Amino acid sequence: MLSRLSRVQAVAVCAVPLVALLGVAAFVPLPFAIAQPGMTADVLGENKGTPVITVSGAPVRKTSGQLRMTTIVATGPDAEVSLGDVLDGWFRTDSAVMPRDSVYPSGNSVKEIERHNTEQMTQSQDAATEAALAYLGRSSKDVKVDLTLADVGGPSAGLLFTLGIIDKLAGDGDGGDLTGGRVIAGTGTIDADGAVGAVGGVALKTQAARRDGATVFLVPKDECADAQAELPSGLRLIPVTDLKSTVASLKALDSGKGNVPSC
Questions:
Q1: Could you report the per-residue pLDDT of 36-72, keeping only the tens digit for each?
Q2: Backbone CA torsion sign across 135, 153, 230, 45
Q3: According to the UniProt entry, where is the signal peptide (predicted)?
Q4: Which of 25, 105, 112, 132 shows a CA-CA span of 20 to 30 A to 260?
């Protein structure tokens, strides 16, 4: 039938079912989540009136500057996301459209997801403590570290927790602060051996960091391209792969001597 119609007529005929399909899709929930920049928290300070890092069994330094962990906030696992929401998210720089299964495991209830995120945070905190004490050559038998961060789940604050513990216990090792007095933000998982892992959502996290005063952002090296995509003005990226080189980069940044890598 379409072969006997003019091009204009054929387009018109095809457009009818397409418009109808889009009309239906506009009201049907889609399998996406909409994410935006979330809160940040200075791990060297307090969050909701409670110290994020509490150390016992060893003297603690008075620190300057900030080490801000970053988050994203996404529509809930049971939220309905429409075609209009998706189109709006695609055209905005302060939000991102992500497959729901990449944000929330498929088939899990809200309570199961919350429990999973809490478990990941606990595991991240344990790994961060192990990595920090191992870097400093200290034993967990002598030094106890408690990490408290309300209403945040997942493993992506691991690197910042580790740096915060090191800064409170030893600083840069020469009497100064790891931050050099700066507001430094970042993201990244960490394991007990100090390896830093990717986390996702870094383009939104850089916006949250700059909004809250950061001038430097520590980003897992594999996510440099994502971080550069919507990089806010005035925010410097430092790629990281492991704890030792991250500390070395911060020391070089403060002293002005040595190599500070860039994306």
A1: 999 999 999 999 999 999 999 999 999 999 999 999 9
A2: negative
A3: none
A4: 132
Q: Which residue has the tokens 């991250």?
A: 246
Asked if 212 and 234 count as a contact pair (C-beta separation under 8 A), the reply is: no
Taking the C-alpha atoms of residue 30 and residue 25, their distance in angstroms, rounded to an integer, is 8
For the chain, domain boundaries: 34-76+109-255
Helix (H) or strand (E) holding 103: helix 100-103
Nearby residues of 16 by Cβ (< 8 Å), 6 or more positions away:
none
Token reading at 31: 């399998």
Assigned architecture for domain 34-76+109-255: 2-Layer Sandwich (3.30)
- Nearest CA-CA partner of 87 in 30, 153, 13, 129: 30
Cβ atoms within 10 Å of 138's Cβ, excluding its own: 17
pTM: 0.83
Q: How far, rounded to the nearest angstrom, does the alpha carbon of residue 178 sit from its chain's CA centroid?
A: 20
